[in-house]
Amino acid sequence: MNSPLPHTGKADGTVGKALEVLDSVAAFERPVKFTELLEQSTYPKATLYRLLQTLVNQNLLSHDPETGNYSMGLRLIRLAHAAWENASLAPIARPFVEELAAGAGESVHLAQLDNGQVIFVDKLKATDRFETLAQVGKVAPAYCTGVGKAMLAYIAPKRLDIVLQQQSFFPYTQATHRSAESLLGELPTIRESGIAFDREEHEEGIVSIAAPIFISNGRVIGALSVATSTMRYDLDRLTVFRDELLSTADKIGRQASSWHFPG
Amino acid sequence: MNSPLPHTGKADGTVGKALEVLDSVAAFERPVKFTELLEQSTYPKATLYRLLQTLVNQNLLSHDPETGNYSMGLRLIRLAHAAWENASLAPIARPFVEELAAGAGESVHLAQLDNGQVIFVDKLKATDRFETLAQVGKVAPAYCTGVGKAMLAYIAPKRLDIVLQQQSFFPYTQATHRSAESLLGELPTIRESGIAFDREEHEEGIVSIAAPIFISNGRVIGALSVATSTMRYDLDRLTVFRDELLSTADKIGRQASSWHFPG
DNA sequence: GAATTCAGTTCCAAATACTGGAACCGACAC
DNA sequence: GTGTCGGTTCCAGTATTTGGAACTGAATTC
């Protein structure tokens, strides 16, 4: 479906290896056979086999004996529910996000940074009745999304260095930043205005206006954006959302602080 | 928040142990300190410490150095997205579920069986605009929910034995089955009608009518229910949903079969 | 302000689990 | 019947994990 996945660094211990395999199953985005995994893997047959077996035992993968296919396991969904409920910004932010979405009449995205990637923890679209949750958990690159850049503009310099390493700078569109330098050039502007734009950098025809969310000690913990299509709003007109967006981001930050949000 | 969690059997290898720890963090449903985990754990201090460290490295947990709290990691959400997208029934069933929800004007739940527990992979409520996804990933006992019993009625006898072991038979309400025998007594009735009822067995005031979903080889892969409150429908009147429910379950099953759904 | 706790972290030799080459198995094809 | 190709199992060598005990540093008591 899409391009180069920046891959996690060190695989410490067996657990790391198992997760690496789990990721590689996830990357296929469909049920996958042993052999397919094998040729894609650095591990020898026997090792991979045992790793898969462990994952299946643990219900992190499921294995259909009839077809020999491996697919993702339901235990992940259970675990993620716990993560979403009490470690993501989403439940705290929910009411504010709803309000913003209703007012704006466009999609609102709530994102956090995970390992140099943007991960969407909530998405709401005022119009569609049902659309939503197919999207939660989706990831996107940080360097070419509004929410991503909004967060990068404010993270600690040493963390920024690490995160920059993890960016692929794959040129999704004409407007995509192609290098760390190019991206770094934009960050001061973002800091000045407190707002980041996605100028069709990730997907042709999609633009967004994003704001960072801060916790009381000054750290960024997430970002919020209003995204829309160039069919309905051009870039300049996106600023109509600016004030609402900033005030919502602020409210979420306050709420998170009073909840002792981890970060 | 609720009662006894039936706990996974064997912890094979390091991966199993790590996941056990991960589960125990999840069970707290809030950020948790090292010590709290320690007293709850069977592992010695040093071991638990290293296990936690590994999980944090792997982004399955996050650790706030200021407060010393551990909480669930965002990587789980990313992984779960993959699981939800291509290993759960939800994306396949979505359109049918929407239709049913719209027609019924009540909540529709789509569930699968994981390790003897019911896990909700989708929930829709026709009325609320936003409610939904806080619920996806939630688990419930199989022995006292409509969807759970609908599935139990059709799984292979040897698998049923295992699953029965995993039930706690905790008496949530007056109507809850208190033993395997009691539960087994109901299953033939379910098989005759192709429909299972939740008669306020899990929660006072909540009732549901549920139907199993079969794949072409005859195996149950999930269940679908319409749930409502006794304020609006009493048990008998729930049967108004029967035909729609059965036909939707059937459509989902067909669709899943043609997609070579794992199971 | 020295003495005592206590949470959290590090050490290290012993115990254990993981590794991967090679051999094996069963199904299908030729 | 023989060959090939997924997939699974064996087993000795090796790398990881283990956990008692000792350490650190911050907070609490005396």
Written account of the structure:
The structure is a homodimer of 263-residue chains. Chain A is of the alpha+beta class. Chain A contains nine helices and nine strands. In chain A, strands 6-5-4-9-8-7 form a six-stranded antiparallel sheet, sandwiched between helices. In chain A, strands 1-3-2 form a three-stranded antiparallel sheet. In chain A, helix 1 (13-28) crosses helix 3 (45-57) and helix 5 (90-104) packs antiparallel against helix 9 (242-258). Chain A starts with 12 loop residues before the first helix and ends in a 5-residue tail after the last helix. In chain A, 44% of the residues are buried. Residues 1-9 and 129-133 of chain A have low confidence and may be disordered. At the A-B interface, helix 1, helix 3, strand 3, helix 4 and helix 5 of A face helix 1, helix 3, strand 3, helix 4 and helix 5 of B. Chain B binds a DNA duplex (30 and 30 nucleotides) through helix 1, helix 2 and helix 3.
